[in-house]
């Protein structure tokens, strides 16, 4: 199992959703693959919804340009 920390890089306001730089979530996955591009990013979408109540995909931020991904362990 791998744990990733996903952090937003920049400020953005789209579709009524406000993203601030530094918003971060942790995602645990079964594989070492990047969770943003694996399985449509669903674990990342779920984590941002759970922690911040925002739909990161609807905001257009579910990509490697907007998000920084770090492997924690």
Helical fraction equals 10-25%
**How many β strands by DSSP?**
5
Low-confidence stretches: none
Strand order of the largest sheet: 4-1-5
Kindly estimate the percentage of residues that lie in beta strands according to DSSP.
25-35%
* Radius of gyration over C-alpha positions, nearest whole angstrom: 11 Å
Order of helices and strands: EEEEHE
Shape: globular
The CA-CA distance between the termini, in Å, is 9 Å
Question: Which helices and strands occur, and which strands form pairs?
Answer:
Layout (H helix, E strand, L loop, with lengths): L1 E7 L3 E3 L2 E3 L4 E6 L12 H11 L14 E5 L2
Antiparallel strand pairs: 1-4, 1-5, 2-3
Which short descriptors sum up this protein?
about 70 residues, alpha+beta, two-stranded antiparallel sheet, about 15% helix, about 35% strand, globular
Description of the structure:
Helix content is 15%, strand content 33%. It is an alpha+beta fold. It is globular, with a radius of gyration of 11 Å. It has one helix at residues 42-52, and strands at 2-8, 12-14, 17-19, 24-29, 67-71. The mean pLDDT is 94. The strands form two sheets. A three-stranded antiparallel sheet has the order 4-1-5. A two-stranded antiparallel ribbon has the order 2-3.
């Amino acid at each position: 199992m791998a744990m990733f920390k996903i952090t937003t890089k920049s400020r953005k306001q789209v579709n009524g959703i406000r993203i601030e730089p530094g918003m971060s979530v942790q995602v645990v996955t079964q594989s070492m693959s990047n969770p943003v591009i694996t399985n449509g990013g669903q674990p990342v979408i779920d984590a941002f919804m759970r922690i911040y109540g925002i739909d990161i995909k609807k905001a257009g931020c579910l990509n490697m340009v907007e998000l920084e991904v770090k492997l924690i362990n």
